[in-house]
Amino acid sequence: MRDNKAIANAPEAPEFEEKVVTIKRVVKVVKGGRNSRFSALVVVGNGKGRVGAGIGKSIEIPEAIRKAKEDAMKHLISIPVDETESIPHDTTGRYCGASVLLKRAPEGTGVIAGGPARSVCELAGIKNIRTKSLGSNNKQNVVLATLEALKQLKTPEEVARLRGKSVEEIMA
Question: Alpha-carbon Rg of the chain, whole angstroms?
């Protein structure tokens, strides 16, 4: 019963792609010895401005990936993409020790990004962007810093509404 309810509330699963960013073996030392598990970091996105990341842990790798995908589907964010399939403005995201700088790029640039940030940008549907990862290069922190940067994006219409001006005044 519980699985059916979770599937009913989940967004359309078939349209979302998933990408496993990292799988690592984690060990907990206990009185009786060592308990070994696997931790998976998965990014999901529909290529049309919705993207999310999740972490899952389990004794088996496929189960950890499944849990991470479910977690990512719960934490989806929507991002604005402009007519050149880039972001509306430059932004920086921070998470723990990782910092990620996202810069607009003209048509034809492509995705210039390192591994973890590239996964997020591609699955979000961004085709032209330049990124630079600063600070920590921990994959989990870089993915989450990239998502923080994407959360800060605003369309020119939103900025104009917040400032009480027209879009033409903002863009000039």
Answer: 18
